[in-house]
Amino acid sequence: MNWTNYLFAFYVFLLLAILVYIWTKASKGKLDDRIRTLEDKQREIIVLQNDTKEAIMVFETYMYETKENLETERKKIEYLIEKFEDMLEEQEASGGAKQEQVGAEAEPYSVTIENNSEPEDTDKGDLYDEIRKLSKKGYSLDEIVKKLGISKGEAKFILGITK
Fold this sequence. Notes:
There is one protein chain. The chain has 163 residues and is mainly alpha-helical. Helix content is 82%, strand content 0%. It has helices spanning 3-93, 95-102, 122-136, 141-148, 152-162.
């Protein structure tokens, strides 16, 4: 073989080496881009994770505050019920004197809240039953009040405790 064949073979080898070099550079650039993309996604995931943790903490704080508010309101309601029971007991104790002051045109009803489901007074039990019956029949609160001659608050209260 003469030297021109060697020179041609050298040029082909050099050309192949240059192509391999260019191809590896291009592949490395794509690999670097993929690595950068994965790193960016990893950062986004970390940010989302931190945001989620913060949202959970805010929600837990909200739930705790809501629980505290509900507990406060429950205590207020218990206090009001106790106060109402005391007022009813006072009204029952002085029922004769107050009725004379008001007059005989309106007969007062008194309601007591007890732990058992049976009322002590049969008149009260009849009133409870009558209110329940009328309510089940579809009478409105105003109709029940007019029909039985009791106050609206009393009817609401009795309907509330009999449910």
